[in-house]
Amino acid sequence: MCRGPGGPPSDSAWHTVRVDQSPESPFLPGRVAVFGLGYVGCVTAACLARLGHSVIGVDKDEYKIRTVQSGKAPFYEPGLDEIVRETVAAGKLSATANAAEAIQNSDIALICVGTPSQENGNLSLDQLHRVVAEIAGLLSRGRKPYVVAVRSTVFPGVCEELVLPGAAVAANPEFLREGTAIADFMTPSLLVVGSSDAAAAGRVAGLYSPLGVAPCLVSLRAAELIKYACNAFHAVKIAFANEIGATSARLGISGAEVMETLCRDTALNISPAYLKPGFAFGGSCLPKDLRALTFRAGRLDMKLPLLESVLPANDEHLRRSMRLALDLPAERLGIFGLAFKENTDDLRESPVIALLEYLIGKGRAVRVFDPHIEVDQIYGSNRRFLFQAIPHIGRLVDKNLDETINWADHLILAQRPSAAYRKLIERSGKPVLDLHSAEPAVEAVCAE
Ligand SMILES: NC(=O)c1ccc[n+]([C@@H]2O[C@H](COP(=O)([O-])OP(=O)(O)OC[C@H]3O[C@@H](n4cnc5c(N)ncnc54)[C@H](O)[C@@H]3O)[C@@H](O)[C@H]2O)c1
User: Fold this and answer.
1) At residue 156, what are phi and psi to the nearest 5 degrees?
2) Is 285 a catalytic residue?
3) Are the C-beta atoms of 40 and 112 separated by less than 8 Å?
4) What is the CB-side half-sphere exposure of residue 427 using CA atoms within 13 A?
5) For residue 151, how far is its CA from the centre of ligand 1 (angstroms)?
6) Residue 375 and residue 394: Cα distance in Å, rounded?
7) 197 phi and psi angles, rounded to 5 deg
8) What is the pLDDT of residue 26?
9) Is 115 in the pocket of ligand 1 (CB under 6 A)?
10) Euclidean distance between the first and final Cα of the chain, in Å?
11) What whole-number distance in Å separates Cα of residue 127 and Cα of residue 139?
């Protein structure tokens, strides 16, 4: 459960945060230990204390401890000094190097230690493993359930593998941005808690209840990956805007005007549209226009590595679908959909045609049904595209879905069927590979 998408928090929003003590959701201040008083840990500790929790910050760095104890922030972050001063004076925030003292006086630990890059790009888990070993050694069996939530950014699988007998583990990634960290904490754009233990997830989410933001309660691994997905998405957005901006400048066009206008479209551009994992794209526009844009940029002596990588990324995704289809334990494959998407008969650059070609080439028996395609009714560039790829396509296309279903051992959804067709497919009881489904198709693999 999540709240709907919110706009970016305003820099001054944290001033307005009130503690919600409505009878329906009584706020229960907790006792929290925050391990690591760096950018994330110190902001988290001070803000949780500001919300009314009793917080002990733990760090190995004497300077950071002394600074927090004296009511100051150990680094510059707008607004942090003030909150540290206020919460230390109110007795809500303290700092120590003594992990035992922190564990003894808390019910939840938030781990905010660093996970820096190694030389090969992998993340270093040394700080995390050291702190977890320390906490594990201090947790006494038989005490009331303790929760350890990892706020550091870690790859999927890392939290699952932590050995913490007597504690439930959660992932609670941090999304703050340095420079607006307090506002980002107090008006979070996203609150994610992952755990296989619902009670633990509830306790972690409960720490933030005064913020009035519905948490997204997800699996442990999903919580870990969401953080990477968000940062990758932000980075891709910046690189995209910069490549469009640079191209605009080269053409004597205002990049700001182009991107501001692009952002005015909140139906297709700045929206969840095109953000669901599924099948490869195709059709008469996206591949052609990407090719033209990158070709023309090349003629201007420009390199656009992000945009140039999009068609190869799409091809690789199509190859993943091909391998999934090839690996099906079936003799006869019935494909739903031939056009590049539903509700059109446009076959130009349809990835389904490449999929068919591939499967036929690998010796698979294939038939196909598309609600909007009758082969003898196809003309012009559509016909050329189709017959060039698969000259005997006429013999592979069924006139109704029942024929395909009855013939096939396994169905492949290359388009999303309408409700009526979906019902037919479900009723048939035939196994289905849905290429638009983002659910895991292979067994999960380990993080390391
Ligand atoms: N900085 C950001 O803007 C940001 C935002 C979101 C998420 N993150 C993630 O949060 C994590 C922390 O990032 P950061 O920038 O705050 O790191 P940081 O290096 O500023 O802080 C880490 C702190 O952990 C302390 N520490 C290390 N081992 C310890 C131990 N055994 N016991 C107690 N303290 C220990 C260090 O002394 C240091 O003060 C990273 O995984 C990072 O990727 C960072």
Assistant:
1) -55, 130
2) yes
3) yes
4) 9
5) 9
6) 6
7) -110, 105
8) 62
9) yes
10) 30
11) 18
Element of type H or E holding 147? strand 146-150
- Does residue 425's CB lie within 6 angstroms of at least one atom of ligand 1? no
Q: Retrieve residue 163's tokens.
A: 């050995």
Tokens linked to 24 = 């329906």
Q: Is the CB of 53 inside a 6 Å radius of any atom of ligand 1?
A: no
Substitution candidate for ligand 1 out of 40, 176, 231 with most atoms within 8 A of CB: 40
- Please state, in angstroms and as integers, the Cα–Cα distance from residue 329 to each residue in 325, 326, 427, 432, 445, following that order: 9, 8, 21, 11, 22
CATH architecture of the domain with residue range 31-213: 3-Layer(aba) Sandwich (3.40)
pLDDT 10s digits, 371-407: 998 887 877 877 887 788 788 887 899 999 999 999 9
Tell me the per-residue pLDDT of 160-215, one tens digit each, with 9 for 90 and over: 999 999 899 999 999 999 999 999 999 999 999 999 999 999 999 999 999 999 99
Q: Side-chain half-sphere of 308: how many Cα atoms within 13 Å? A: 9
Given a cut of 70, the residues of the chain with pLDDT beneath it are 1-26, 141-143, 440-448
Structure tokens at 385: 């595209």
Tokens of 310: 């999009």
Q: Is 224 in the pocket of ligand 1 (CB under 6 A)?
A: no
The per-residue pLDDT for range 126-141, each reduced to its tens digit, is 999 999 999 999 997 6
CB 152 less than 6 A from any atom of ligand 1:
yes
Pocket test for ligand 1, best of 42, 66, 127, 172 (most atoms within 8 A of CB): 127
Nearest protein CA to atom 44 of ligand 1, as residue: 40
Cβ neighbours for 90, distance < 8 A, ≥ 6 positions apart: 49
**pLDDT of 145:** 86
437 vs 423: CA distance, rounded Å: 17
Whole-angstrom distance, CA of residue 30 vs CA of residue 46 = 14
| Residues in a beta bridge with 55 | 32, 93
DSSP alpha helix (H) spans, 1-145: 39-50, 62-69, 80-89, 99-104, 126-138
Buried residues in 304-334 as b, exposed as e (16+ CB within 10 A):
bebbbebeeebeebbeebbeebeebebeebb
What distance in angstroms lies between residue 282's CA and the mean position of ligand 1's atoms? Answer: 43
The residue behind tokens 């001070």 is: 46
pTM, two decimals, is 0.89
